[in-house]
Amino acid sequence: MGLGARAAPFTYVAHALAVAAAAMVLVWCIHFRGGLAFEATNKNLIFNVHPVLMLIGYLILGSEAIMVYKVLPTWKHDSTKLIHLILHAIALVLGVIGIYCAFKFHNESGIANLYSLHSWLGIGTICLYGIQWIFGFVTFFFPRASPNVRKGALPWHILFGLFVYILALATAQLGFLEKLTFLQSSGLDKYGAEAFLVNFTALAVVLFGASVVVAAVSPARFEEPHDYAPIPGH
Ligand code: HEM
Ligand code: HEM
């Protein structure tokens, strides 16, 4: 699929938005919500690890993994493939730890588990991500399928990979919405600084995700057709 645009500018935009979104989620959870902890008497601090790890660890690292072929187009394919699979593995592990923190917060606060659409899509997305990783590893890395099978499998790997990635973006949107709605129902100012911060973080994630997807479906560089010649006089 070609959009007639090169991937590079979209990767720059994605990086800038990733830095902005990461900074905003940290300011939210540390400055407004009191900080991060794995063990604490204030259980909200355990919850705060969840959005931070899901955004920075899972979504942003996963996006860097997807974009690596476009960010480092001149590197050897074997090297970018290795970076791709390692970054995806780290993203998966941090995502699992982030989800564990949400469960830990619920269990230690006596709150039920898995009652929301967010949590259902969250479990679905992390499982599909794990399956995608295993299939990718076995097909393209070790033991590696035959060249013909690899060729046939690649479009499916890209399609399914982008599907899982978009599902993860949507899950994060529901998470931001859900948490902000909880806070607003317990008295948080609907037009206050914190509400704007959370909504702008979620908006940055939408634009960030869009840039990553466009970068993934765009070519790293154009191969001009050999018979191309500019129209004389133009
Ligand atoms: C793709 C990223 C994300 C995934 C896969 C994910 C997954 C999950 C899962 C599986 C749970 C259920 C925990 C339980 O039932 O004990 C959960 C809970 C929760 N998550 Fe996320 N989450 C993600 C991002 C976020 C973000 C960015 C926020 C923003 C604050 C958030 C807010 C919440 C809230 C408020 C809960 C508790 C309420 C509930 O269970 O729905 N999540 N998340
Ligand atoms: C959850 C994990 C994974 C996801 C979401 C994922 C997603 C993607 C996406 C979206 C692309 C297209 C990138 C582009 O064309 O710019 C891609 C390409 C690729 N992925 Fe994965 N991937 C995952 C795991 C793996 C693993 C474990 C391997 C094993 C080596 C792998 C091997 C490849 C290869 C060889 C390409 C083709 C690169 C090229 O076009 O030259 N992927 N992946």
UniProtKB/TrEMBL annotation:
Statement: the UniProt record of this protein carries the keyword Oxidoreductase: yes
InterPro entries, A to Z: CYB561/CYBRD1-like, Cyt_b561/ferric_Rdtase_TM
PANTHER family listed in its UniProt record: CYTOCHROME B561-RELATED (PTHR10106), TRANSMEMBRANE ASCORBATE FERRIREDUCTASE 1 (PTHR10106:SF22)
Boundaries of every Cytochrome b561 domain copy: 13-217
Organism: Oryza brachyantha (malo sina)
UniProt protein name: Cytochrome b561 domain-containing protein
Keyword Membrane attached: yes
Pfam families: Cytochrom_B561 (PF03188)
Function: Two-heme-containing cytochrome. Catalyzes ascorbate-dependent trans-membrane electron transfer by utilizing a concerted H(+)/e(-) transfer mechanism.
Taxonomy, superkingdom: Eukaryota
Gene Ontology cellular component annotations, sorted alphabetically: membrane
Membrane topology of the entry: Multi-pass membrane protein
